[in-house]
Design goal:
Layout lengths: L1 H39 L2 H10 L48 H14 L2
Length: 116
Amino acid sequence: MYLAVSAKLAEAGRRVLVLESRRSELMHQNALLTARLAEMTAPEVMLARATSLGFAPAGPDDIEYVVVDGEALGEAFVAPRPPGTYSQGFSGLSPAFTETLGEWFTRWMRNQQRQP
């Protein structure tokens, strides 16, 4: 019984080693393919390839707009502002707050020290 269990354990261990080796090989191939894709899709490479295929950058005279009947024209696109650049005038606090927490605490400590 012990010998049968040991044999099955050894076989399972060998399968694990083979599978780990295959996994490592596939991960390496995946990394190589990812690097190759990055090289092939670099802007400079794609621009050179497009030029070699006869493409050229479109100028204002090359663009043709198609008007679709019944399609409402939307408002012009306005890009959102980056975080932290919203209107400087609105801080979200009530105008009643005229000092920071640190200023208030310093004032409070001074008043505590003055009292007997």
